[in-house]
Amino acid sequence: MKNIAILSSGTDNSGINAAIRSIVRSASSMKMKIYGVNWGYRGLIDNSIHCLTSRDVSGKIGKAGCFLGTGRPEGCFVPENIPKMMETIKKNNIHGLIVIGGRTSLIHSQKFVDMGIPVIGIPSTIQDDIVGTDICLGVDSAVNNIVKYVDKIRSCEFSRDRTFIVQVEGKTCGSLALRSAIACGAEICLVPEQPCDDISVIARDLADASMTGKTQVLTMVSSGWKPGVKALSDYLVEHMEETDLLVRETVLGYVQRGGSPTSYDRLLGLRMGFEAVKAISEKESGKMIGLRNNEFLRVPFSEFLANDKPMDKALMNLFHLSR
Amino acid sequence: MKNIAILSSGTDNSGINAAIRSIVRSASSMKMKIYGVNWGYRGLIDNSIHCLTSRDVSGKIGKAGCFLGTGRPEGCFVPENIPKMMETIKKNNIHGLIVIGGRTSLIHSQKFVDMGIPVIGIPSTIQDDIVGTDICLGVDSAVNNIVKYVDKIRSCEFSRDRTFIVQVEGKTCGSLALRSAIACGAEICLVPEQPCDDISVIARDLADASMTGKTQVLTMVSSGWKPGVKALSDYLVEHMEETDLLVRETVLGYVQRGGSPTSYDRLLGLRMGFEAVKAISEKESGKMIGLRNNEFLRVPFSEFLANDKPMDKALMNLFHLSR
Amino acid sequence: MKNIAILSSGTDNSGINAAIRSIVRSASSMKMKIYGVNWGYRGLIDNSIHCLTSRDVSGKIGKAGCFLGTGRPEGCFVPENIPKMMETIKKNNIHGLIVIGGRTSLIHSQKFVDMGIPVIGIPSTIQDDIVGTDICLGVDSAVNNIVKYVDKIRSCEFSRDRTFIVQVEGKTCGSLALRSAIACGAEICLVPEQPCDDISVIARDLADASMTGKTQVLTMVSSGWKPGVKALSDYLVEHMEETDLLVRETVLGYVQRGGSPTSYDRLLGLRMGFEAVKAISEKESGKMIGLRNNEFLRVPFSEFLANDKPMDKALMNLFHLSR
Amino acid sequence: MKNIAILSSGTDNSGINAAIRSIVRSASSMKMKIYGVNWGYRGLIDNSIHCLTSRDVSGKIGKAGCFLGTGRPEGCFVPENIPKMMETIKKNNIHGLIVIGGRTSLIHSQKFVDMGIPVIGIPSTIQDDIVGTDICLGVDSAVNNIVKYVDKIRSCEFSRDRTFIVQVEGKTCGSLALRSAIACGAEICLVPEQPCDDISVIARDLADASMTGKTQVLTMVSSGWKPGVKALSDYLVEHMEETDLLVRETVLGYVQRGGSPTSYDRLLGLRMGFEAVKAISEKESGKMIGLRNNEFLRVPFSEFLANDKPMDKALMNLFHLSR
Fold first, then answer.
1. B40-57 confidence digits (pLDDT tens)
2. Which chains pack against A, by 3+ Cβ pairs within 8 A?
3. Would the pLDDT of A41 be above 70?
4. Looking at the complex, does the CB of residue C69 fall below 8 Å from at least one CB of chain D?
5. Contact: C158, D12; criterion CB under 8 Å
6. Quick check: B87 and B44 in contact, CB under 8 A?
7. Is B245 a residue whose pLDDT tops 80?
8. SS3 at position A276
9. Most CB atoms within 10 A, among A29, A75, B75, C285?
10. Does D162 touch chain B (CB under 8 A)?
11. Can you give the pTM of this predicted structure?
C-alpha cells in the first residue's frame, strides 16, 4: 500500500482539514504518498487530483470547510462515470481511498470496495445520523455555532414575552437539535424521531413555560421534525390570543457548518485521520472509523449502512432532567 | 429641571445601555436625578419606575439590549392610559423625559411635549430610517453582526456554485442592507427604495456574476424589498436549469440586534446620552439628538417625523464602485 | 439526605453554572432542597447561603464563571473558622456538601468528610491536573479560548518571519498547553513535565521550523515550564543574529477562563451535576465524580489527592505525529 | 497616469484589504492598471510585483492583515537599495505609488516624491498617531478586539476584588487606550501624553474605586505610558497590604491587530482607497488621505510629518464624564 487518495464528499463542515492534516503527516512518516482529490467524487471523474506534502496542510487546521473542496455524490455514480473514476485511480497508481463524508457519501464508496479498491471511511456530518460512532466529525462545531446564535438571540434578555423557535439541521436524526437544546437550556425540543400529531399540545407546553414567569421561551426544532416549523409557527400566530405568545422564528442555515472548527473537532479529525491511515496500511477495507466510549473502532460499512441511528436516550434523559 | 425620567421604546438594540450610563453619570454631576422607566411607555402606565445611581449603570456598557427593558409603543397610547402616564410623571415629580427609540417611538413622545412635558429623543433603531441623523444608535453593531454571519457562511469557501441570499432588516429603508452589502463585498443589493418589476433581470445578473468564475455569489436583501426574498428564491429554484444557480436563503432574525455592542455604538451612545442631558438641562424640548458630519445637532421632531429618509446615494455609489 | 449545599471554590471557569443548574433541577425532582453558598468556603464562614429554586438557575447556563461567586480556599481553614463553618451547616440543616473546584479546593473538603459531613466533589479547573478523570470541567472552554486567540494572532498570515510564543496556564500539568498546541498546529510545546536544561536546543528547533519556509512558527508553553517563557524569550532576542527569528510573546491571562462556556462544558457540567446529586443521595462521601472513557465513576479522594497526574502520552503522541 | 503600484508598509492591521479592493476596482473603471507590491518596500527592492485584477481582490475584504504581505520600512532605504527600487519602478513602467502605512512608512515615501514619483498615502496604524486625520485605518477593529478581550476578562463577574491592568498599543499616542477605556467602562486610563511621577496617586485612585463596592476595577494603559505597566504592577503587589488590591496584568499583543475587520474599517478602507486613486489620477502627490468630520481631505505630508498628534481632548472629556 503506497499511494492513498483522500476525498471529502457531501457538504463541508468543520474538522475535515484536521483529518487531512494528520493523514498527510502520518502517511509521510510511513513512506506513503497521499493524493488529494478536489471536489469530492467529481475530482475522480475529472482527474482533478494532486500529491499533498506536509507543507500543503500547514496552517489549514484552523480553517473552515475542506481546503480540497467537496461535492455532492449525487450524479457522480452514473454508469458512464465509473470507468472515468477507475482510470484516474489507475493513472495515478492509487492503492487505496480514504473517504470523508456523511452516510450517503460513505454508501457510495462501497462501489470501490466492490471493484477491489480498499476504502476507509471517516464519518463527517452535522446530521450525526450514522450508526457505529458516538459522534460524527463536525457536530461539536455545529452545536457551538448554534449555541452562539441562541446566546445572541437571548442576550436581549429584557425583552418580554418572546417565544423563540430555532430550526437546526437534522433530516432523520435529532442529535444536533437535542445537543443544542441541552446546551442552550431550551424548554422544548422537537426531533424527527418523535413526530407530533397535535400541535395544540406543544402550544400548551409553551404557554405553561411562559406562565412560570420566564421572559423568554426557547424551542429547538430539527429540520426533519413533522409537521415542521412552519406549521408550528402558523398555529401559534393563529392562536396568539389564547396563548399570549409572541413568536420569533429563526431558520439557521449555512451558518451552522461554517466558521473555525472547535478544538474538539480538530482533535477528533486528527485522531480519525491517523486511525484511517493505520487501518488502510493494515489492509483493512470497507470500514469506517467509529468512536465509541473514547476508543476508535473499525466499523464494517454493512453494519451502519443498513440501519438508522436510534435516538440517543441518554441525551433525551439529560434534556428532560435539566430543563 | 431636577428629575429626569429615561425610557427605551421599541425593540432593543446595542448601545442603549451606554446612553443610559452617560445620562446617569453626567446628570449626577449636574445635580439632576435620573429615573429609569421599565419596559418603555408601559412602565409609565404601570408606575414601574425607580431612581438610578452611578452604581446601577456600572458594568452595563458591554451588555446587549437595554437593562431597563423595552416595550413596543403600540397600544400604550389609548385614551385611558394617558392619565395613568401623567400620574406617574407627577407622582415621581418628573420634570422631563429622555426617550430612546425608533421613529414610531419618538413620534409617540410628541404627546408629552404637547402636554407640557419636555422631551428629548435619542434615535436608536437598526432600521436606520430616521431623517436628521447620519446614523442611528445600534446600526454599527447590527452591520457587524451581519458581517460575522456572512463571513461564517462564506468561510466554507471551497464549496461550489452557491448563491447566498441573505435577508436583513429594513422595512422602508435599505441602509442596513447597503452597509452590509458593501462590508461583505456582496454582488447584489436589493433595497425597499428600489422595488423590482422583473425578477428575471436579477436572475441574469446573478448568473453573470457566477459565470465570471466566482464560487460564491452573495445577494443582500432588505426585508421590505418588493417583491421579496421568497419571490426571488422561488424564481431561482424554478429556473435553476437555465441559470445553473444553487440557491441558499438565510433570513437573519433577532441575531442582528443581539450580542455585545461595538465600540462605535458604545461611544455613540455615551455621546448621545450627554447631548440629551445637556439639551434637556438647557430647557430644549421636542428635539432629537442627531449626528451630522461628526457634530451633534438638536433636530426638531417636526423635521424628521414628516419625512422619509431618502436613499443614501454616497453609500449606493460606494457599493457600485467597489463590487 | 434532604438539604444539600453547593459551593464553588478556587478560580472560576466555564461550565460551573451548568453543573449548578442540573444539581438544582435534579435535586428538586428528588425532593431535596439545594442551598447555594456564595464566594466558596468563605460563604460557609459568613453564613452567606440561600435556597436555590429552579427559577434561580434559569438562563444561567450560557453565562461565564459561577453565578454564586467563587473564592480561594487559602485562609479559610484556619482553626477559628472551622466552628463558624460547622455552625452555618447546622443552622441551615445541611446534610451534605457538593464542592466544585480544583485539586486544592477538593483537598480542603476532606475536612468536612472527617467531621462527618458527606461531601461529593466535581473536578473543575483549567489546570486539568487531577488524577481520576480524563478531563476537568472548564478545560474544553479554555482550549477553545486559546485557539481563538492564536487564530487571531495567526490571521495576519502574510507577515514574515515571526515566532509566536504563547504562554497558557499549567503549573504542574501540561494538559492545557498540549491540547492547545495540537488544536492550533503549534510547532513546539513546552510543558512542566519536561523541563529544559539547554534552551539552545529549542532555539535550534525553532530556527529549523522557520527555515522550512513557514512564515510563522508557534510555540505553546505552560506557565509552569522551566526555565520559563521569559528565559526562552530573552535567549531568542539575544541570539537573534544567529537564529534570524523575530519573537513575539503573548501571556494569556484571565481571558483563558472567561467567556461563554462551550457546549461540551455545558453538557459535562450538567452530567457531573446529576452524578453528584445521585452519589450524595446514595450516601456516598469523600468521592469525586470522574469521567473515564465516557463513563462516570466515583473516585475516592484518597486516590487522586496523593498523586500527581502523569503526562498524557496519547496526547503527546498525537502532537508529535501531527505537527 | 496609467500604471499605479500599491504597497502596504509597517505592521499589518485590519482594513488594508478593503483599501486594495477599491483601489483595484476603481482604477480598472478608470482604465488604470494596478500593480501589487509584496512585503512593503522590500518588494520594490526585490522586484516582487505583479498586476492585480478585479478577481484577485474578490473575497479578500473579510480577511485580516494585508494579502500582499507587509514589511517594516527600516533597513529598506539604505543607499544601495534606492537604485534597485527605482529600477523596479521603471522596469514595470510605474507612474505613481499608493502607500498604505503608519507614520514612519509614510515619511519614507517622501523619498519617491523627491525623485519625481507621485505618491499618495493612506494612514493605516492602530497607533492612531497621525496628525491630519480623525482616525487611522485599523483603529476601529483594534478597539473592538480589545473590547472583546476585556469583556471576556470581566465576564467572570462574580470573582471578587480584582484589579485588571490591560496594556494596549500606543508608543506616543494614547488614542487606542482612551477609546478602549471609554468603550470598556474603565476606571483609569494611563496614556503617554500624561506620564506619572508618583504611582501612589494611581494606587490610591484604584483603592478608592475598589472601595465603592465594585467587584472589578479596570485600568487601561498605553504601552508608551511612563513609568510603565511593570512599575505600576510591581508597586501594587508591593503595597497589597495597604491597598487590598489583587492585581491581574494582561499585555495584549498581536491579538489587537488580528481577526476579521469591522464594517467600519471595511468602509473606511474602501473610501480611502477611492480617494487615493482619485487624488493620484488628478496628479496630486506627497499627500495623505485624511478624514475630518466625515469628509476626505488631501493632507500634505509636510503637515503631519513634522507634528505629533495632540491628545484628543474631546475623548479625554468623554472618558472623565462617563467613568
1. 999 999 999 999 998 899
2. B, C
3. yes
4. yes
5. yes
6. no
7. no
8. helix
9. C285
10. no
11. 0.89
Q: Is the pLDDT of residue B15 over 60?
A: yes
- Domains of chain B in start order, with CATH, are 3-138+260-307 (3.40.50.450), 139-256 (3.40.50.460)
* Grid coordinates of D21: 479592493
- Closest chain D residue by Cα to residue C17: D156
Below-50 pLDDT ranges, chain D: none
Flag if B318 and D271 touch (Cβ within 8 Å).
Answer: yes
Residue contact D155–C255, C-beta within 8 A: no
Q: Which residues of C touch A133 (CB under 8 A)?
A: none
- What is the residue type of B90? K
Contact assignment for D157 to C11 by CB distance below 8 Å: no
- Residue D103, phi then psi, degrees to nearest 5: -60, -50
Helices (H) and strands (E) in chain B, counts: 12, 11
Residue A253 in contact with residue B249, Cβ under 8 Å? yes
Which amino acid is located at B38 in the chain?
N
Between positions 288 and 317 of B, the ones with CB within 8 A of D are: 293-295
Cell numbers 494614547 label which residue? D174
Quote the minimal CA–CA distance from C8 to chain D in Å.
Answer: 11
Instruction: Encode burial over C14-46: b for 16+ CB neighbours within 10 A, e otherwise.
Output: bbbbbbbbbbbbbbeeeebbbbbbbbbbbbbbe
Edge to edge, the sheet with strand D188-190 lists D188-190, D216-222, D162-168, D246-251
pLDDT band for A159, please (50, 70, 90 cuts): low
Closest among B163, B181, B93 to D267, alpha carbons compared: B181
- What is the structure's pLDDT at D145? 94
Q: From first to last of the 323 residues of chain C, give the pLDDT tens digit.
A: 689 999 999 988 899 999 999 999 999 888 899 999 999 999 999 999 999 998 899 889 998 889 998 888 988 999 999 999 999 999 999 999 999 999 999 999 999 999 999 999 999 999 999 999 999 999 999 999 999 989 888 776 555 557 889 999 999 999 999 999 999 999 999 999 999 999 999 999 888 887 776 768 899 999 999 999 999 999 998 988 887 777 888 888 778 888 899 999 999 999 999 999 999 999 999 999 999 999 999 999 998 877 889 999 989 999 998 88
Contacts of A235 (CB under 8 A, 6+ apart): A199, A200, A203
Radius of gyration of chain C from Cα atoms? 22
User: Which chain C residues contact residue A143 at CB under 8 A?
Assistant: 263
Between β-strands C33-37 and C49-52, what pairing exists: parallel, antiparallel or unpaired? antiparallel
Any idea which of A113-127, A201-215, B218-232, D306-320 has the lowest mean pLDDT? Answer: A201-215
Evaluate the CA torsion angle C77, C78, C81, C83 in order and state its sign: positive
Report cis status (omega within 30 of 0) of the bond before C227: yes
Please report where in the chains the cell 513535565 appears, as a residue.
C193
In the beta sheet, which residues pair with residue A21? none
DSSP B143-206: HHHHHHHHHHHHH-TT--SEEEEEEE--SS--HHHHHHHHHHT-SEEE-TTS--S-HHHHHHHH
CB of B64 within 8 Å of a chain A CB? The answer is: yes
Contact yes or no for C132/C289 (Cβ under 8 A) = no
C26, A321: Cβ pair inside 8 Å?
A: yes
D259–chain C Cβ distance below 8 A for any pair: yes
3-state helix, strand, coil in chain C (%, to 5): 40, 20, 40
A83 is written with which cell numbers?
470507468
Does chain A reach chain D with at least 3 CB pairs under 8 Å?
no
Most B CBs within 10 Å: which of D263, D297, D320, as the mutation test of the B interface? Answer: D263
Nearest by CB to B12, from A145, A154, A156: name it: A156
Closest residue on chain B to A252 (Cα): B250
Task: Check CB contact of D69 with chain C, cutoff 8 Å.
Answer: yes
